[in-house]
Design goal:
This protein has 915 residues and is mainly alpha-helical. Among the domains are: 174 residues, P-loop containing nucleotide triphosphate hydrolases (Rossmann fold, 3-Layer(aba) Sandwich), CATH 3.40.50; 56 residues, no CATH class; 103 residues; 97 residues; 57 residues, Arc Repressor Mutant, subunit A, CATH 1.10.10.10. The protein contains 46 helices and 7 strands. It has a 5-stranded parallel β-sheet, with helices on both faces. A hairpin with a 2-residue loop joins strand 6 and strand 7. Helix 38 packs antiparallel against helix 39. The chain is globular, with a radius of gyration of 32 Å. The chain starts with 5 loop residues before the first helix and ends with a helix. Bound molecules: adenosine-5'-triphosphate and magnesium ion.
């Protein structure tokens, strides 16, 4: 019987009700041991009605990948066949329902999302309860959290339970959390007197106060007291056991049982998810042993089998066990006929004394299977345990190396580092040493020390004169790290050496190196030669398939194509790359390419589309915790928001971009954050602030050897900001740089911007000439934003030359163009100028002429969904590609229809901004 907890139940009940009404929600209930989390979760689930999916973590040495998912999804697995093929396969392989197929880290997670949504669609509201999340296998945990964060318009409530102080950081889960404290005084006393009718009232009140209302303590402590203490005649002990402290009290109760009951308890305590330990105990020690434990209040026996009265009973049983007895029960559990191969291997490991080659081999297989299914952290644990059981130092070192590599791919560099330290202590083979140091370099580069990481890789490559393939791969990796650092010259050197080494042995690797070299040279300003290389590689890059090399190289090729205004190539590459990565369900890998596609859209003046792509990139980066790639889309998003006049979002994203990039010494990326703020302030008419941010961008960029203003494109803004704040010499100095860059092929943007700035800085009589030439460069159809900026400055300049009548025409055109683009702050600036020049106060061109009405009201996700629907994709296909449920897709589409004033999908393509 539950006492108290009215508020908490109302909160949880609200979530369940929301789910019934078609809105998903998630809450993590956390608190100390015995505070009542499990009880509350069970009560909320019992009141839910509909489908309840349940899983519970078990404290154990074993790391059984996807064990909790198997438990949780059991009742709805029959719906797997209705999932998109890639999801059904990933899930089937993870749950060992079919042959293991290689899966990406988040493939199973998006399948869980799909299955929960399908269950809700098919059977009505679903409540997912995952208790003791701190002990749930890592693969299941990250899949459940991913799904919980991305469910939206689905009747699904996700309730999580976490015991504090067991190593799981609730704040880092990034879901709403509720800290559960003890019962209040009245509820506590009610609980005590219900369980122990003879207890004196004053003693009850005292116990509630001394235990902080911890219900487990309240239930268990009176049994530990003497009759005189219970009656209030003798004082209570000074130290009452609470939380984990109750383990010892349970331990004493376990010790009082007879040997068969203790053995039965030990079998249950050593069991892992999937074991039929109760069946085994019945078989080996008999029913009587189980019922004796039940009588002692340590077990609950019911239709679902035998469960411990509380998880602390399990800890108590394990703590009290003789090591030999524990090994023996693990041996018995390993021999159960129904044991899974993974479960058996972990039991055998726990039963082993000293090194055991067979068991180590079996555990290595467990690790390989987990890794294949995308459970990298659980795989790392299996490899590490296999290493413990391996005698030969180099074999052991190789297993530790495998473990560290898996930990790194699984996003746990700190664990990887720890494993590498252990590896270093045993490795003797020089080749293992090379791999070890290369891996350490990789760990460094992903955990905030890219410089050291890249240097380490280069050093290892030098130590491998007889292995050009591996040396080449190391150098290539080091070169790619330099891209973010902005050390472009060194990047060229490293990639060139990689290419020369790989050319005779691995032509595809050499070709990738060639592309990297070209990308770096492009950033160094060698546009013509580099562009020719990228142009020649275009078809090959377009044919990219996941698994044939890092997708970043293709995304970088698209990015660098924008620097020389080859937008056709850039868009084709980015669009194709995004499509194949979506198709393959590669969530984390999409983050950077989506950011690049956003950049392409931005440069083409399609601000809404740019925002949709960049927003999705940031969401996926957050959902996967993949921070390395997050800085770039944050920077692009901030620039888009600066243009759209979304000041607060722009500031938040720009600041986060710069901070994240700085923390990873990624100077090239940090520039974007500062540049977005410069643009924002310039658009808002704050030249002083704009100049400060522009100068910050310049300072950060000076730490790189980038010599290409077309990359981040802040230079004309800095020139304008300096000029407006009175620093003409400063403006002129930067203008000279822009003019130098404008000489390069494919730099009409720089050329036009430089010419218009000449017009601004030059004498009155030259105005017409400079601006006419600038406008020739910025064809309004191709560069609408730049052309409108040129007209705005022209109008302003003409007014300053006392030609207000001449100023009005370009200003009217500029207002209309900015409005069409949705660049609100700039439209406003142009309107103010127009009024000052004696023009009409009203808007010049009417509401957004080019986009259909309503498009700017769409949220980024609505637009993303609408664009795919306009291409003819079904809701299910769109959902699979965007990692959303079909229901959420439907929800977005119906809102989109309303905003656009249309009724049918067929009308979508006409209502959306042009491609
Ligand atoms: N609100 C309540 N009303 C009545 N009894 C309660 C209440 N909350 C908890 N209890 C009692 O306290 C015991 C411990 O609670 P519970 O198992 O829910 O704690 P927990 O927070 O899940 O602990 P752990 O972190 O160890 O899993 C329960 O078995 C139940 O007997
Ligand atoms: Mg609990």
């Amino acid at each position: 019987m539950l006492v108290g907890r009215e508020d908490e139940l109302a909160t949880l009940g609200g979530l369940v009700q929301d789910a019934a009404a078609g809105r998903s929600g998630v809450l993590c209930l956390h608190g100390p041991a015995g505070v009542g989390k499990t009880m509350l979760l069970q009560q909320a689930a019992a009141q839910a009605g509909g489908t309840v999916l349940h899983a519970r973590g078990v404290e154990s040495e074993a790391h059984l990948a996807f064990a909790a998912l198997a438990e949780m999804l059991g009742p709805v697995l029959d719906l797997r066949d209705g999932l998109p093929a890639a999801q059904a396969r990933a899930l089937g392989s993870a749950l060992a329902l079919e042959e293991a197929a290689p899966a990406a880290p988040f493939a199973v997670a998006s399948a869980v999302l799909g299955l929960l949504a399908a269950a809700a669609e098919d059977r009505g509201p679903v409540v997912v309860v995952v208790d003791d999340l701190q002990w749930v296998d890592e693969a299941s945990r990250s899949a459940v959290l991913f799904a919980a964060r991305r469910l939206d318009a689905d009747p699904v409530a996700v309730l999580l339970g976490v015991r504090d102080e067991e190593g799981l950081d609730v704040a880092a889960l990034d879901v709403p959390a509720l800290a559960l404290g003890g019962l209040d005084a009245d509820a506590g006393v009610a609980l005590l007197t219900a369980a122990h009718p003879g207890l004196a009232d004053a003693v009850a009140r005292r116990l509630v106060a001394d235990t902080g209302g911890n219900p487990l303590a309240l239930v268990e402590i009176p049994a530990l007291l003497s009759a005189a203490q219970r009656g209030g005649e003798e004082p209570l002990p000074a130290q009452l056991p609470i939380g984990r402290g109750l383990e010892r009290a349970y331990g004493r109760r376990v010790g009082a049982l007879d040997p068969p009951a203790r053995e039965a308890l030990l079998l249950l305590a050593a069991a892992q998810p999937g074991d039929d330990a109760a069946g085994l105990a019945r078989h080996l020690v008999g029913d009587g042993a189980l019922t004796a434990a039940e009588r002692a209040g340590l077990l609950v026996l019911d239709a679902s089998g035998a469960t411990f009265r509380h998880p602390l009973v399990r800890s108590a049983v394990l703590a009290a066990a003789e090591p030999a007895a524990l090994r023996a029960v693990h041996g018995q559990l390993a021999d159960q006929p129904g044991a899974s191969p993974d479960g058996r291997a972990w039991h055998r490991a726990a039963a082993a004394i000293g090194p055991d080659a067979d068991v180590a081999a079996a555990l290595r297989d467990v690790g390989v299977r987990a890794q294949t299914a995308g459970a990298f952290v659980d795989a790392a644990a299996a490899f590490a345990r296999a290493a413990d059981l391996t005698a030969a130092p180099d074999d052991r070192a190789r297993l530790l190396l495998e473990a560290a590599a898996a930990a790194l791919v699984g996003g746990r560099p700190a664990l990887g580092r720890e494993l590498l330290v252990r590896c270093e202590q045993v490795a003797r083979d020089p080749l293992v040493g090379v791999d070890l140091r290369a891996l350490r370099a990789r760990v460094d580069s992903r955990s905030g020390q890219p410089e050291a990481g890249a240097d380490g890789l280069v050093a290892e490559a030098q130590a491998l004169p007889d292995d050009p393939l591996r040396a080449g791969a190391f150098l290539l990796e080091a070169a790619a790290i330099d891209m973010a650092n902005g050390r472009m010259r060194r990047m060229v050197q490293r990639a060139t050496r990689a290419r020369d080494l790989a050319a005779p042995v691995a032509p595809p690797v050499a070709a990738l190196a060639e592309v990297l070299i070209a990308e770096a040279r492009m950033a160094l300003g060698e546009s013509a030669e580099a562009d020719a290389v990228l142009d020649a590689a275009h078809e090959q890059l377009l044919a990219y398939q996941p698994g044939t090399g890092p997708p970043e190289i293709v995304a970088m090729a698209a990015q660098s194509a924008t620097w020389v205004e080859r937008f056709d190539r850039a868009e084709a590459l980015a669009t194709r790359l995004v499509a194949v990565l979506r198709e393959a369900g590669l969530v984390a890998e999409l983050v950077y390419p989506l950011g690049v596609r956003a950049l392409v859209q931005l440069r083409l003046g399609r601000l809404q589309r740019a925002r949709a792509d960049a927003t999705e990139a940031v969401e996926l980066g957050d959902a996967t915790g993949f921070e390395t790639a997050l800085g770039y889309p944050l920077g692009v998003l901030a620039e888009v928001e600066a243009l759209l006049g979304e000041d607060d979002r722009c500031r938040a994203h720009a600041t986060r971009c710069a901070a994240l990039a700085e923390s990873m010494s990624a100077a090239s990326i940090a520039v974007y954050g500062h540049a977005a703020l410069c643009l924002l302030e310039l658009g808002r008419g704050h030249p002083g602030e704009a100049a400060d941010h522009g100068l910050a961008a310049e300072r950060v960029e000076a730490r790189t050897d980038v010599d290409e203003s077309a990359i981040v494109r802040y230079l004309p803004n800095l020139v304008e900001a300096l000029w407006r704040s009175g620093d003409e010499p400063g403006a002129a100095r930067r203008l000279a740089v822009l003019e130098r860059h404008a000489q390069r092929p494919g730099h009409t943007w720089a050329a036009g911007a430089a010419l218009r700035l000449r017009g601004v800085l030059g004498p009155d009589e030259e105005v017409d000439d400079w601006f006419a030439r600038a406008l020739e460069q910025h064809d309004p159809a191709e560069r609408p934003f730049e052309a409108a900026r040129t007209r705005l400055l022209l109008g302003e300049r003409l007014r300053r030359a006392r030609r207000p009548a001449d100023a009005r025409r370009p200003l009217r055109t500029a207002v209309a163009a900015f409005e069409r683009l949705g660049a609100a702050p700039w439209a406003e600036r142009a309107r103010v100028e127009l009024r000052a020049a004696g023009g009409p106060a009203a808007s010049a061109g009417g509401p957004a002429a080019a986009g259909a009405p309503g498009v700017e009201e769409l949220t980024p996700q609505e637009l993303q969904v609408a664009l795919l629907a306009a291409q003819g994709q079904t809701n299910r296909e769109i959902g699979a590609g965007l990692f959303l449920s079909p229901k959420t897709v439907e929800h977005h589409l119906s809102r989109t229809f309303r905003k656009l004033g249309i009724r049918r999908r067929a009308e979508l393509s006409g209502a959306l901004p042009p491609t």
